[in-house]
Give the backbone structure.
Amino acid sequence: MKKTLIIAATAAFMMTGFVATEAVAGPEGKCKTCHSFGAKHKVGPALAGIVGREAGKSGFKKHSKALKNANWTWDEAHLRKWICNSKDAVKEFAGDPKARTKMPPQKMCGAKGDAIIAFLKTI
């Protein structure tokens, strides 16, 4: 019971943090929960210079196998699909229906995704 309450409280805190962060920092606010916009990696890889970079080649040590073996570049089309649903995108990009990523689907599709990509181009 105690473990369930701790998990529920943690989930509630995280959801509150995502909403507040997004409201304060714009569409990219959700990203900074796990990523930095500089050179230092956090839970996820640093996003500075991601547009035009080869996928899985940021120096981040915790990429999934699919990203470590990636053969694509983070252009607008790849970023748009990734930001919308990374779980489906990694399978498509890797050409492997079993490919996985540790990043949960962000569901930042359409105009929200375009706004994030526009921001990423500036860092």
Q: What stands out?
A: The CA atoms of residues 4 and 10 lie 10 Å apart.
